[in-house]
Amino acid sequence: xxxxxxxxxxxxxxxxxxxxxxxxxxxxxxxxxxxxxxxxxxxxxxxxxxxxxxxxxxxxxxxxxxxxxxxxxxxxxxxxxxxxxxxxxxxxxxxxxxxxxxxxxxxxxxxxxxxxxxxxxxxxxxxxxxxxxxxxxxxxxxxxxxxxxxxxxxxxxxxxxxxxxxxxxxxxxxxxxxxxxxxxxxxxxxxxxxxxxxxxxxxxxx
Length: 206
Hints:
Blueprint: H1 2-23, E1 75-76, E2 87-88, E3 112-113, H2 131-135, E4 140-148, E5 154-161, H3 166-179, E6 185-187, E7 190-192, E8 194-202
Antiparallel strand pairs: 1-2, 3-6, 4-5, 4-8, 6-7
């Protein structure tokens, strides 16, 4: 009996459901939504720049310490049985040789003062005009090279330049060699022999 009542109830419930469904309006059509997948942009990782290198600190320079050298001392070799003791002494360094003194230039020789034959106190005479040369109207100047000794006399007389007349040349040579006096040459305070040129002129007047 109970089962029959359950079956009847189920039929009634189904019938009522059909009636309610028919009386309600139809539901709206579903709206289709399009979904577009957007590809995600790749994520780029930017690394931060590396930190600047630390400045290199300069290495401390080693300090040079001046140390005094030990003074070399005598070294003594231990003696053997009967050998004598030999002492070896370190030799001191040889000092450098002093610079050579500059060679001094030789002293200049004193100037030679030539002989003098025109001093008034000498009173040297003029030559005698040869008669033959005078009659031939010969004239001219002869140059004599005279060696004056330390006592002021003519030690030698040579014809340096002729006057053109042998008579005039000989007359000039004779008077100088025999009768002339000279003031001798000097080198500093010393009297020396020296050569001197003596001109002798022969001129006719009228």
